[in-house]
Amino acid sequence: MTPTTHPESEIVPGAELQRDLVAVSSLPLAGETVAFTGTLASMTHRDAIRLVEEYGGRATHTVSKATTMLVIGEEGWPLEPDGVTSQKLQQTTQLVADGSETRILAESDWLQLLGLDEHREEIRRSHTPAMLSRLLDVPVRMIRRWARLGLIRPVRRVCRLPYFDYREVASARRLAMLLDQGVAAEVLERSLTELSRTMAGTDRSLAQLNLLVQDDKILMRDERGVLNPRTGQRLLDFDATDGFGVFNPGEEVESSSDPGDHDADEVPVSIPFHSARPDLQDRRMADWNAEEWFHEGCRLTEEAELESAINSFRNAMSLLSSEIAAARLSADDAAEDHLSMFPDPAEVNFHMADALYRSGRVEAAIERYYCAIESAPDFIEAWTQLGCLQSELDQPEVAEQSLATAISIHPENPDALLHYAQLLDQTERDDEAVEYWKQYLQHDSRGPWSDHARARIARATGTVISTCTKTDHDLFG
C-alpha cells in the first residue's frame, strides 16, 4: 500500500528559506539603509542601531547614495558646535535635491513607523520642571526663568504645577548652549530656516532664538499692559497695531494639551523695546509696588543673588496687604479685576522659600512653604517641596504627611511619587515603596530615576522590566 502523505508535513526544498525571506520583507525597515543625526530623545545610539537591524534594515554611520532614510533626533535640533546644521542633514538634503528618494523622518515619526507608540508618546509627553531638570541637566531655576521670559510655555497647569513640552525645552537648551558658546544668532537663524524646509516646529524655535538674543531688551505684553519680565516694571505702551513688529511666540505651535488646559489669551506677546517707553524711567526703588518687587526677587533668585532676592520678596509681601486693602475699598465693578493685578501671595511665599532654602535656611524655608499653603491649600509644588525639606531635617512622619497630601491632590504628580517612594525606602518600608516606584514609572520611563525604579522593582519582585529608552545623552552628528 502506498503510504498516505500529508501536504502540510511535506518538506519542500527551500520552503523554510522562502518563509524567512517573506517574513523579513514584511518588516517595516526591510530594504532600508538608515542613518541618524542629532540626539535621540527616546533611546541611545546603540539601541537605535539594534532596532534598525531587528526591524529588517541596515544601520549606517554615514550618509551616501545608498542611504534611504535619515532619522533626526528630537532632543534639540541637529546643530553642530558651530551652529550649522549637521553634515549628515546637509548631505541628505543635497541627495534629495539631486533626485534621490531618501526620506527624512523626525524621531517620533520613525518610532510610529516601527509601531513603537509607547516610545513616541514618551517623547511627546509633558514634564514638570523637576523632571525636565533631571532629564536635560538644566537647573529648575533656569526652567522657571525661561518660562518667565516666555521662552517656553506650559502646555497645562494642574493646581499651579506647570507641565512643559519636552521638545520645546530641549530646543531652548540647545539654542542657549550654542549662544553661550559664542555662536552668532545669525548663524543659528540661518540653520533653523534650513531646518524648516524638512521639519515642522522651527517657527517656535526661531521665536525662542529671538527671545534669547534680546533677553534684557525684551518686553512682554499681557492682559494688563506691557511688562519688563526681568525687572517687573510696568511700561507705557503704544497700540500693538502701530506697526512695531509685534510677534507672538506661541503662534503656529501645536500643543499636545487639551484646548481647555489653558486660555490662549494668557500667552504673552513679546515686543521690541522701541515700541514702548518707560512710564517712570528714573523711578526710585522706594516707589516700586508689590508686583515690581516680586519680579525683582525672581530675577535675583535666578542670578543667585539670594539675600537681595529674599529682601525683594519681603518688600513685596509687606506692600501686598496695603495694596490689596486699598483695591478692595474700590466700589466699582472692576474691583475684582483690579485685585488680579497683584502678585499671588502664595507664589511670593513659594519663591521666597526657594531662595531661603538655597541660602541654607531650611527651617525658614519650611515656614514660607507653610505660608504658601495657607494661601493656596492645593499648591502641590509647595506640599512636595515641604515634604522634601522635612525629610532632609530627618522628620519622616511630617514629611510623609506632606507628600501624601501632595499625592492626594494630584495622584499623577511624578515629583511627589518619586519623593514619597524615596521616603518609604529610607524608612525601610520596602513593599510600600515598590508600589510607588511602579506608579512613578508610569510617568517617567527614561529619566535617571526610572532606572533606579526598575532596579528597585526587580530586586523586590524578581521581575526585570526591560526598556530601550534613553538613559544618557549620545550626540551623533
Percent of residues in helices: 40-55%
Distance between the termini: 71 Å
The CATH topology label of the domain at 15-120 is Rossmann fold
Count of DSSP H/I helices: 20
What is the CATH superfamily of the domain at 15-120? BRCT domain
CATH class descriptor name of the domain at 15-120? Alpha Beta
Rg (C-alpha, Å): 27 Å
Chain-averaged pLDDT: 78
User: How does the overall form come out from the CA principal axes?
Assistant: flat
For the secondary structure, the number of strands is: 12
Oligomer: single chain
Backbone structural class: alpha/beta
Question: What are the key terms here?
Answer:
477 residues; alpha/beta; Rossmann fold; five-stranded antiparallel beta sheet; four-stranded parallel beta sheet; 20 helices; 50% helix; 9% strand; disordered N terminus; disordered C terminus
Brief write-up:
This protein has 477 residues and is an alpha/beta fold. Helix content is 50%, strand content 9%.
Can you give a write-up of this model?
- It is a single chain.
- The chain is an alpha/beta fold and 477 residues long.
- It has a domain at 15-120: Rossmann fold.
- 50% of the residues lie in helices and 9% in strands.
- The chain contains 20 helices and 12 strands.
- Strand 9 (225-227) and strand 10 form a beta hairpin.
- The termini are far apart.
- Residues 1-12, 17-24, 235-282 and 468-477 have low confidence and may be disordered.
